[in-house]
Amino acid sequence: MSDEEHQFESKADAGASKTYPQQAGTIRKNGYIVIKNRPCKVVEVSTSKTGKHGHAKCHFVAIDIFNGKKLEDIVPSSHNCDVSQLFMAFLPIFTIFVLFLLKSTVPANWLSNVSKLFFHLDCQIKDGFGEGKDLVVSVMAAMGEEQICALKDVGPK
């Protein structure tokens, strides 16, 4: 076309949705739902009968999977709710240390989550390495947020 230079801003996002719709009446306890734009795990579901306004209602009580806050929502059972795409990864402790060394390639919030985990699990990590255990951390990701949620011993195979 022309000799103009075009600048493209690179983003590592394929444009896929972070949520998918699911009928409220089909969401059960221990399932996942988005309440107030936060990914949550459902801890209680109650359904009311059809009433004066014609729809059965689902009352959801859920816990935010990242900050642990309790959230509630009431939705007609025939309507759709957003459910978050949830991803889990298991990384060896060695990989986490390498990520610390390569700070330029790791998002800042990831590093703060890793440092919080090491602060809380410091004794378990030291004891595990002292006993020769193979340790991995489980990382949970949903709706653009990541969090390290546990330390596990995978042991010998």
From TrEMBL:
Protein name, as recorded: Eukaryotic translation initiation factor 5A
BP GO terms, sorted: positive regulation of translational elongation; positive regulation of translational termination
PANTHER family recorded: TRANSLATION INITIATION FACTOR 5A FAMILY MEMBER
Region described as Disordered: 1-20
UniProt cross-references to InterPro entries, sorted A to Z: IF5A-like, IF5A-like_N, IF5A_C, NA-bd_OB-fold, Rib_uL2_dom2, Trans_elong_IF5A_hypusine_site, Translation_prot_SH3-like_sf
NCBIfam families recorded: eIF_5A
Keyword rRNA-binding attributed: no
GO molecular function: ribosome binding; RNA binding; translation elongation factor activity
Family statement: Belongs to the eIF-5A family.
Every Translation initiation factor 5A C-terminal domain range: 121-152
PTM: eIF-5A seems to be the only eukaryotic protein to have a hypusine residue which is a post-translational modification of a lysine by the addition of a butylamino group.
Chain segments annotated as transmembrane: 83-102
Sorted UniProt keywords: Hypusine, Membrane, Protein biosynthesis, Transmembrane, Transmembrane helix
Domain of life of the organism encoding this protein: Eukaryota
One Pfam family linked to the record: eIF-5a
